[in-house]
Amino acid sequence: MPAGVQQASKAETAVTGVVPARRQNIAFAWFAGSLASCGAVTFTNPFEVVKTRLQLQGELAKATPNMVKPYHNVAQAFWVIGRNEGLRGLQKGLGPGYMYQIMLNGTRLGLYEPAKNALYSVFTGSPSSGQKPIIPLNVAAGGMCGVAGAALGSPFFLVKTRMQSSSSFAAVGHQHHYKSSLDGLRQIWRQGGVRGLFRGMDAAMMRAGAGSSVQLATYDHFKSYISHKLSHRGLDGNSVYTHFLASMGTGFFVCLVMNPFDVVSTRMYNQKAAATGHGGALYKNPLQCFYKTVSTEGFFSLYKGFLAHYLRLGPHTILMFVFVEQIKALGARYF
């Protein structure tokens, strides 16, 4: 933005108290992303609980014919948790899940367009609007926003993962017993301070960076492609059906890329603290977690919980993008 325009914008804000449209748009996109993702996670959190337990089951144990597995598949795990722990068991971690969604998706959806415009301006000389999508730039913008959101939301993801793995009936992984989200944050703070709250953040940043770069870029591409090819059938950029179809395609590719990072992230967060109080007892960093997981359990252990992940991520992607597009449409109409 030219200096003269910036000065005029500041002067207008000072005199009228009205925030310039650019900042209003970023703030509204952040609000829309937060609200939409919280609405989506309300419905998909039970599959997150199932996915977490499937990923922790058999951690660093070589498969044997007589290995006892309390959770055999998604449907059976869903039934076991629901029957023995009820709806509260299936919705474990929903509170910190909301906070994580606000930090992650509010940030990445709110900053995606500005980040994309900045990259397009640097590499093409003009903003992204009106241009044909450039996939590498969209991927880079999505990845940067995902990393930033994951870093901000890391303490809430930590508590969420530990609450979801906890079970008095069929425990898997290390068990952390928190009475509530606040109790979890309090206990972690007492044991490890700020470092404890952000333990595993590097794994979460890798996870969110990989997932976000694919999700936002492929959604952009699918949405543009569908609206271009099927606009004559009413599937333009503002159609709910366009948003639904674009989200369906996006969910699969995100899950394919993200699942190995998701397994590592879950295990990094759920491990107990080392006896020294610094770091984790099982893994020092995400790369070591990748190595130990694959060398002990095989390559496909990185795809543990894939179906549960897709059943969580697919509907979550669909609901989130459909919600966010409708919230943006309402905002454009009434504000």
From TrEMBL:
Q: InterPro entries attached here?
A: MCP_dom_sf (IPR023395), MCP_transmembrane (IPR018108), Mito_Carrier_Antiporter (IPR051508)
Taxonomic classification: Eukaryota, Fungi, Fungi incertae sedis, Zoopagomycota, Kickxellomycotina
Cited PROSITE patterns: SOLCAR
Task: Write out the entry's keywords from A to Z.
Answer: Membrane, Mitochondrion, Mitochondrion inner membrane, Repeat, Transmembrane, Transmembrane helix, Transport
The family annotation for this protein states:
Belongs to the mitochondrial carrier (TC 2.A.29) family.
Gene3D superfamilies xref list: Mitochondrial carrier domain
Topological relation to the membrane, as annotated: Multi-pass membrane protein
Q: What is this protein called?
A: Mitochondrial oxaloacetate carrier protein
State the gene name recorded for this protein.
OAC1
SUPFAM superfamilies xrefs? Mitochondrial carrier (SSF103506)
Q: Where in the cell is it found?
A: Mitochondrion inner membrane
Species this protein is from: Coemansia brasiliensis
| The Solcar repeat ranges on this chain | 24-118, 133-225, 238-330
Question: One GO CC annotation, please?
Answer: mitochondrial inner membrane
Tell me where on the tree of life, at the top rank, the source sits: Eukaryota
